[in-house]
Amino acid sequence: MGMHLSTSINHKNRAIRELAQVFSWVQISGMSSAEVSRMVLGTMKTLDKCPEWVRAYVRGWTEATRRVLERELVFFYTLPDGRLVSTHRDRPDYYEKVGLGPKEVYELATHSGHYWIRRRCVDGRWEERLVPYFVSPMDGTCEFCKSKHVPLVAFLVSDPNQRVCEKCHKDKRVLTRRFGDAAEKV
Ligand SMILES: [Zn+2]
Q1: How many other C-beta atoms can be found within 10 angstroms of the C-beta atom of residue 46?
Q2: What contacts 67, CB < 8 A, 6 or more positions away?
Q3: Which residue of 31, 83, 144, 186 sits 20 to 30 Å from the alpha carbon of 52, by its own alpha carbon?
């Protein structure tokens, strides 16, 4: 005996209300891609007992809404000195405006990814802050085990500038946080 049609529809509507609530906060709160995925997964889990068409409907709605939202993200490359340059022609940090070519910036960059741009007015001037949404891990030396040329996937909670490898991130004695898991201040 399957679920009543009206119950299925109620679940579908409730799930979409829940997700719409999450999505209305993603940009404002500078949520990361991993955080969004976790929230979506949480809602999807509540549909376990529903017929497949309910989950398919909610999945489709989620993918479309997420794609629209992600159009607001700006792509940046991080240079070895920590400076971020964007791929948007109309921004002052566009790589050509800082004197770099596309091949140069690609080869120089230590990592790259999508960021939310948050603006606030300070003393009558607009200030920008970049909040990472999804940023690729960079290769380098792990600050903890000192392994060289390994992907650095996380940072020490005590010092976000100290980046660590996958092995050290999994080591419970080292308090770390994975890139993209929480809004890391840039
Ligand atoms: Zn390590």
Answers
A1: 13
A2: none
A3: 31
